[in-house]
Amino acid sequence: MTKPASVRRRPATNLIHPARPVSPGFRSLMPGTERASTVLFENTEKWKTRSGFDESIYTYGTSGTPTTRDLQNRIAEWEGGFNSVLFPSGLAAVAYAFIPFVQPGDHVLIPSNVYEPVKTLANGLLKQMNVIVEQYDPMIGAGIAAQMKPNTKLVWVETPGSITMEVSDLPAIAEAAHNGGALVAIDNTYSAGWYLRAFEKGADISVHALTKYPAGHSDLVMGSITLRDEATWRRVKDAALQTGQCVAPDDAYLVLRGLPTMPMRIQHVERVATDIAHWLIARKQVGKVLHPALSQCPGHLIWKRDFTGATGVFSFILNDEFGADAAARFIDALELFQIGASWGGVGSLALTYDLAKSRPNWPHKGALIRLNIGLEDLEDLKEDLLRGFAAL
Ligand SMILES: *Cc1c(COP(=O)(O)O)cnc(C)c1O
User: Fold this and answer.
1) For labelling alongside 217, which of 106, 107, 136, 379 has CA 20 to 30 A away?
2) Ordered strands of the 83-87 beta sheet
3) For the chain, which ranges sit under pLDDT 70?
4) Cα of 93 from ligand 1 centre, angstroms
5) Ligand 1 atom closest to Cα of 222?
6) What is the pLDDT of residues 48-105, one digit of tens each?
7) Atom number, ligand 1, closest to the C-alpha of residue 91
8) pTM, full prediction
9) Could you tell me if the CB of 342 is within 6 A of ligand 1?
């Protein structure tokens, strides 16, 4: 609250110090959007004793406004964690789930099917910091114990892998990692925290691209890290404060606006995606459908045990005779499914990935096509996919 202006001054000053607060007595169902660089203090004592870690107060735009704190608190509550920190993209959140927890000479484990930019980070800044990053098979489960080293500080899990859809045994990996003294971080973007309770399954750190289902409308990028306890939250918050990581209140408002409809949107795309996945199995040009709810998806039984549902992203593999050119023909013939990265918005998307490069032991010859199911009509989406099959 600003100090009230007791005297009217000259016009330019009065523009800056209004006589009355705005909209007294106004109440609405939605939060306001409160923007700030400068946050005002009532007196010098409060200024001198401020702390960026004290979330009962506001200190500066980078450490939060009521709008960004509202979102941060809702994410933390949604996930059942101690607290969250918001980042300007999902990838920034991924990076800040590593950086505060590693020192030169430390070892971390990432799955071989990980979201590709994590490998770039591993070979870039993490390597520059002399952090040793090793890959593990996402289906390894408790066997990961053999890859743990005395200096392993963090085990990264992404489940299901967002392109090849393997469902990892998070509880088994977490147990082995904890026995070896490492923290367990999960990229929980796929389930949006709705179908996988990360902390109940053993994770210490849960990362989201809020860009996807929480925002839900393909109009912003944002990420969050939620921490199980206060000690780990302080380390991530400290790193964010040191480097000025923060989000714009306007973007935070858009996520606050998207969140209430998220469960309903996810349940809808789950129904449509599962229907399309079963329908694809019956197409003679399709070799395999990688959707966690289908028994042919690696880790299907783990998904059944640990998840309460599937979302709207999945992949399928064409028969051996249909390579990269065929996949391009298929995708280019689609009218409703658009070509573009990301997912979780209202529009359906289709992409193909060259896995020979990123996954040396990838066993399939046929091309992989990854679909994001949006909110269009199910029958229209099937008719659109038939255009793709006709183009093969
Ligand atoms: C999209 C995505 C990210 C990164 O999110 P951005 O906001 O696009 O930077 C990280 N992990 C997974 C699994 C994603 O799908």
Assistant:
1) 379
2) 83-87, 223-227, 205-209, 183-187, 152-158, 107-111, 132-136
3) 1-6, 18-22
4) 9
5) 7
6) 999 999 999 999 999 999 999 999 999 999 999 999 999 999 999 999 999 999 999 9
7) 9
8) 0.95
9) yes
Domains of the chain (ranges; CATH) run 11-260 (3.40.640.10), 261-391 (3.90.1150.10)
Three-state secondary structure readout of the chain: CCCCCCCCCCHHHHHHCCCCCCCCCCCCCCCCCCCCCECCCCCHHHHHCCCCCCCCCCCEHHHCCHHHHHHHHHHHHHHCCCEEEEECCHHHHHHHHHHHHCCCCCEEEEECCCCHHHHHHHHCHHHHCCCEEEEECCCCHHHHHHHCCCCEEEEEEECCCCCCCCCCCHHHHHHHHHHCCCEEEEECCCCCCCCCCCCCCCCCEEEEECCCCCCCCCCCCCEEEEECCHHHHHHHHHHHHHHCCCCCHHHHHHHHHHHHHHHHHHHHHHHHHHHHHHHHHCCCCEEEEECCCCCCCCCHHHHHHHCCCCCCEEEEEECCCCCHHHHHHHHHCCCCCECCCCCCCCCCEEEEECHHHHCCCCCCCCCEEEEECCCCCHHHHHHHHHHHHHHC
Q: How far is CA 333 from CA 63, 345, 387, 392, in A?
A: 47, 21, 6, 9
Do residues 376 and 248 make contact, with C-beta atoms less than 8 angstroms apart?
Answer: no
| Separation between Cα atoms, residue 330 and residue 285, nearest integer Å | 11
How much distance in Å is there from the Cα of 164 to the middle of ligand 1?
Answer: 15
CB atoms under 10 Å from CB of 390, counted, come to 10
